[in-house]
Amino acid sequence: MATPHIAGIAALIKQKNPSWTPSMIASAISTTATKYDINGDPILAQGSDIYSLYPSTPFDFGSGLVNPAKAMDPGLVFPSEYEDYINFLCSLPNTDPSKIKTATGRSCNTPFANPSDLNTPSVTISSLSGFRLVRRIVKNVGTKPETYLCAVLVPEGVTVKLNPLWFTIAPQGSQELRIELNVTKPQDGFRFGEIVLTGNLNHIVTITLSVWPVSMS
């Protein structure tokens, strides 16, 4: 039932905000979701044994449980346009540019340096070796200026440096976030964290971090 629920919520958001693009709607749904149930406990996922429950990761529940009311007024969104997705496809490893042009009609003229540069409300790096700089652009979809403070829950095995640590953003204004990740200890799998942007008008924007630190070289 997740698909019709999300489709219905997306339709409500689009009705309230007709000019929003699909990426903006998806961003609003993701960044306002919660990783805790109605009792305040972390979301659990069912294991292979029906009697065995284990703490979930973002690969199990995505951004979390959707909050439709908050998604209608997310404060900030992460917009991506059609060209951004073409650049993302062109930056994937072992990609054949001719096949992308056949499928989309667009050439790989400006691929991203890394697929993680696609402007989504999450950061996933499947093989982090040494240092990586990731950029994100947020847009204020509110009607008032708002000041945000940035905090980070760091994934195990990496350091995360944010710039800026706080910012004030005007209505319809944009702000670049620079996320610097550096391996401190290689891990045997993905490690998870999050960036939380807390606004003075009660907006809370959460960005999931999924990183596999493999080398410090």
Helical/strand content category: alpha+beta
Major sheet: size, sense and barrel closure?
A: 5 strands, mixed
Strand content: 25-35%
The number of helices is 6
| Mean pLDDT over the full residue set | 91
Low-pLDDT segments, ≥5 res: 47-52
Ends: how far apart? 45 Å
Give the fraction of residues assigned to helices.
10-25%
Strand arrangement across the biggest beta sheet: 4-11-10-6-8
Shape category: globular
SSE series: HHEEHHEHHEEEEEEEE
Radius of gyration: 18 Å
Q: How many extended strands?
A: 11
Provide a compact summary of the structure:
This protein is of the alpha+beta class. It contains 6 helices and 11 strands.
Task: Please describe the structure with a list of short key phrases separated by commas or semicolons.
217 residues, 5-stranded mixed beta sheet, 4-stranded antiparallel beta sheet, 6 helices, 35% strand, Peptidase_S8/S53_dom
